[in-house]
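Review this chain:
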Amino acid sequence: MSLCLCLCSAGSGGLSAPTNVRLTSYNMDLVLRWDPPEGTTDVLTYTAAYRSSATGYKNVCTNTSALECDFTSSLSTVYGSYTGRVQAHRGAENSSWVESNLMIMDKQTFIGPPSVTLHVTGTSLEVSIKDPVFKYSELREVYTLATYNITYWKSSPKEEVKTVSGMMQDRVVLSDLEPMSEYCVQVQIIANLETGPSNYSDVVCEHTGDVDAAPWVAAVVAFVVMAAVVALVVTLVVYWTRISKFLCPEVVLPPHFKESLLPANPSIYPVSPISEHCDQVSIIADHRTEEEEEEEGGCSTQPDTSQEGG
């Protein structure tokens, strides 16, 4: 090991290599970190790369002045083993490459604490758990059998700590608690035996309610809600006509609008129907024959001979 460190320290051009090179993983990310070469005060740049168990080295950070390089976005999977390496640069001088430790992400990543909220229901507390956000994938996608350890205690006076282990649900009810008392809760994630447990969440405290007052309050709330609904229905039925007129009022046009809508020539388009005037007509039929008409005509044309004879 000492021989390897000596070889790594001696780079081309006499530039020392970075030190304390380590590959880390927190919440399923993959980050290579390092320290500057010992005894170097110059401004240096670095090139960092990683390789997997199936591929060769791939440069990710080139000529960076930072002392870390995040490989997460360039990963194709979180499974398998990874190794990182880094090289220092000073002008045209390059140090030798320094390799990191081997990292198996799904077995060695460090899992952060979950977030916890409490909801009071009478003398019970409902513990709502939210998993930490993974940078690559989701906790339940990688650790399908992950469980929670829930630790709780009465804060004043502090009593013996109680633990509920092996819970897979993200909502757990703690019952049989003392009324009107403050309880505090912490939660820890157990992903698998190889990864180890996460850190505990922040301590969250909440007061339980009064066991006698809880049903009474619920009954009052239910009565108020039902009374409000009934009053609303009655109001709608009784005043529906007024409400409908208020919501949908009739539109009354001003007189000058009505005049503008009348046709320009009322003789062509009468506004009202024209009244008809009728006179009574009597028809008398003439039943005389043509012979009677001839006789009547002949009598009117012949001279009176009797007067001439006298």
